[in-house]
Amino acid sequence: MTERTETAAPAGAAPPADRPSPVSPAPAGAPVHKGAGTPGNGTGRWSGDAGESFRRNLGLVGVLVVLIVIGIVTRPDLYSDMNWVGDNIMSILTLASVVGVVTVGMTFVIIGGGIDLSVGAIVALAGVWSTTVATQSYGAGGMIFTAVVVAVCVGLVNGFLISYGRLVPFIATLAMLVAARGLAAEISDKQTQVSNNATINGIASNDVLGIPVLVFILAGVVAAGWVLLNRTTFGRRTVAVGGNPEAARLAGINVRRHSMLLYALSGLCCGIAAIMLTAQANSAQAAMANLYELDAIAAAIIGGTLLSGGRGTIVGSLLGVIIFATITNLFAINGLSTEAQNMVKGGIIVAAVLVQQFRFKSLTQLLARNKLRSTN
Amino acid sequence: MTEPAERPAADETVPAGVQSPNGTGPVGDPPPLVTPPADTVPGEVVLRLTDVVKTFPGVRALDGVQLEVRAGEVHCLLGQNGAGKSTLIKVLSGAHQPDSGQVEWLGEPVSFGNPQAAMKAGIATIYQELDLVEDLSVAENAFLGHEPRQLGFVRRGYMARQTREILARLGHPEIPPRRMVRSLPSAGKQIVSMARALSHEARLIIMDEPSAVLAHDEVGNLFRIIRELTAQGIAVIYISHRMEEIREIGDRVTVLKDGRTTAANLPARSTPTRDLVSRMTGRTIEYVFPDRPAETPAAEKLLEVRELSREGEFADVSLTVHAGEIVGIAGLVGSGRSELLETIFGARRASTGTVSMAGRQVRPGSVGAAVRAGMGMAPEERKSQALLLGEPIYRNVTLATFTRWARLGFTDAGRERAEANEVADRLELRPLDVRRPVRTLSGGNQQKVVVGRWLLGGTKLLLLDEPTRGVDVGARAELYQVIRALAARGVGVLLVSSEVPEVLGLADRVLVMREGRVVHEAPAGELDEDTVLDLVMAGSLMEGAPA
């Protein structure tokens, strides 16, 4: 028992003077740590995973800068024109907008420990459903309402099958991918349904203050997603359910209901994306939003969302989407093929995950070493 | 191999340097190990461990283990939970590498870098949870990883024939080699595990509680097989808590306690049970338990469990916990104690029976209902069941309560940190910075976070499952203080622990569970460790001892 001086000092006792401590030797019982943890000596390093996410996002910004530099180097003629640069930034963001909205929902699902392979199919179904002649007769409001309700309902079905039917998310949403596209083809009779609604079509063609409405929608969804994840009980539950479902359950969180809601949220994002995409094309068809699920998952992963759940950021996902859009743009302004572009994207996904694994490993090693040091 | 021979112990190699309980050992310990009388064991020494040490962060799991196993013997390993048996098995099977000390196999010093190496050398391990691939056939499992091949193709016919031969050797020619393992009963699966060992031409088979998965009458068959194996010169290390089995099948016994060999090579049949138990329990570490309150006033009934049963796990458990009382449950792993706790908490659904809090029945099978009724639980597996390791301390502390302080769904991070700070203060959490990720904390402090979670939001009853597992000695004493302090404030505590002294030292009242039933209940002061261990270990210690 004699060696316990460090660990078993009675409350309020002065900590050993030779090491920095966040607790000042205050009289016993005094509120010792208002502001405890404001970095004394090196505690900033431990400011949690938030710091880690921030650093990762900085890395993504770095990647983005590199891509822009490549653009400047390869097409100095274009970049010398500031008007073109402004337009190009807007076209990159517009390109990112639809997938970006889907990715926000996907990020929630993945942080919550699941996966949603059906997002592209939900977008198509919602788009087709909202552009039928009957729906269009209710005007823009009716179309938006229909798209959102259809998409949320499909998400709820996904969630129900996964949470209460105990299907593996991969399987349930894979089945939904197939089924929803099938239903979309059935409803549209495999035809392209033209949207005649000027308000809807205007979403894609109008600007406000020189910024496309689509970009505003993306910004709005991202902002709402960020607040939801970081400032609400819903976000906290999401992290808990994905990080350690058993711990969440034993803390009294209704894990099943929450997982179901996550898929509904993903559906909601798909519904919004469906309207955006319909507006862009002035039409909807069963094959629209093809492979969006892969783009969204890839963007989330590049953004640092852990596929096993429990960790991820909205900002990271947004950066992931923008990086992809920038690559597409880079290839377009250089007149290169989409085939080469896809190969580069594939390489970037692998590189991003490798870098993360490497970082995680070195972090755990650092922890282990630190632990040893502190116990000695 | 019948009676202990009168031979002198001269050639009986008792490993040198078997330590006495460490220098600070308290009085009243059993005497330090003396060379036990020799039991005649034929065969040369196949395995010898000398001073094997294995440490994990914060734990010295093996702290100088001596072990000697001879060809053709059944060598029993005895020790309480946490004595280091599992770690020892893992060292022998190549899953862990010792930090220091020597492992000699067939006279040569060896170091197994991985389980394959150990298996190749002829050491096979049959784990309690059999590691078979359920959807492969018996033959494929037996030869898993070393299938007989020709030109890259598995020689299926040959493999089946070999398997049939091995099964015949094990006395089970009726098991078809091409049968899926999934369709076999657990006794059959165990045979397949042994067939795998034999397919490697194992010379030493380690069996970790092999009887735990077997029905009573199947144990006899297991023993018959073990006898046949040893007759062929194969050595067996047999681990079991059941004394009567050790008496029946064992030749020699080595006792582990706190990672050390406290007795080696005792004759399995003739060593008095008292001796074995005292070697298992004699403490080298004195835990400091807080004093019990002088007298407990007749407090109100808080938790009342009536005839609670869950199929295959526990049956007809009735118990009460009063406000301010600590009730301890002693029992082995598998006695149903953890399952009981989880069922009371609603994490599992009871087959029959009721749980009431303060006179009101709690909706079964709902953790939410239990929490609302004022229960909180610190589960057995801290990391996998209780913590979000990457999240800050304060978010772990408030995991069960953050919704209460939220407004319109928006969390109140300031309030959460303040509440968490208060908890951290009360529990003397170190470090105090509640924004650190929980994974940077030591085991003891992580446990404080789990317990601390339930200090918020008016928890009236705390269910603690192995609260000090993986917690170092210093932090243990602190946790004990915390638990006692909670009880002093009127919180009822229901505590489960594998460590009998912990239950006896901390609890006011003790229930002993065995095989899913409460077999004894008494105030802690009226029980001692030996009695409880007797009760816990199938009550056969007394009968098994020779008169």
Automatic annotation (TrEMBL), chain A:
Domain of life according to the entry: Bacteria
Alphabetical keyword list = Cell membrane, Membrane, Transmembrane, Transmembrane helix
Record's bilayer topology term: Multi-pass membrane protein
Pfam families per the UniProt record, alphabetical: BPD_transp_2
Main site of residence? membrane
Check the record and name the CDD domains matching this protein.
TM_PBP1_transp_AraH_like
Q: Which PANTHER family does UniProt cross-reference here? A: ABC TRANSPORTER PERMEASE PROTEIN YPHD-RELATED-RELATED (PTHR32196), RIBOSE IMPORT PERMEASE PROTEIN RBSC (PTHR32196:SF72)
Kindly provide the name given to this protein in its UniProt entry: ABC transporter
Which species? Plantactinospora mayteni
From TrEMBL, chain B:
* Composition bias, Basic and acidic residues: 1-10
Gene3D superfamilies referenced in this protein's UniProt entry, alphabetically = P-loop containing nucleotide triphosphate hydrolases
Looking up PANTHER family in the UniProt record yields: CARBOHYDRATE TRANSPORT ATP-BINDING PROTEIN MG119-RELATED, GALACTOFURANOSE TRANSPORTER ATP-BINDING PROTEIN YTFR
Q: Is Nucleotidyltransferase among this UniProt entry's keywords?
A: no
Entries under SMART domains matching the protein? AAA
Q: Which InterPro entries match?
A: AAA+_ATPase, ABC_carbohydrate_import_ATPase, ABC_transporter-like_ATP-bd, ABC_transporter-like_CS, P-loop_NTPase
UniProt name for this protein: Sugar ABC transporter ATP-binding protein
Return the CDD domains for the record.
ABC_Carb_Monos_I (cd03216), ABC_Carb_Monos_II (cd03215)
The ABC transporter domain extends over 47-283, 297-540
Q: Name one GO molecular function term.
A: ATP binding
- Can the keyword Cell membrane be found in this entry's annotation? no
Q: Keywords, A to Z? A: ATP-binding, Nucleotide-binding, Repeat, Transport
> Which superkingdom heads the taxonomic lineage of this protein's source?
Bacteria
Region ranges (Disordered): 1-39
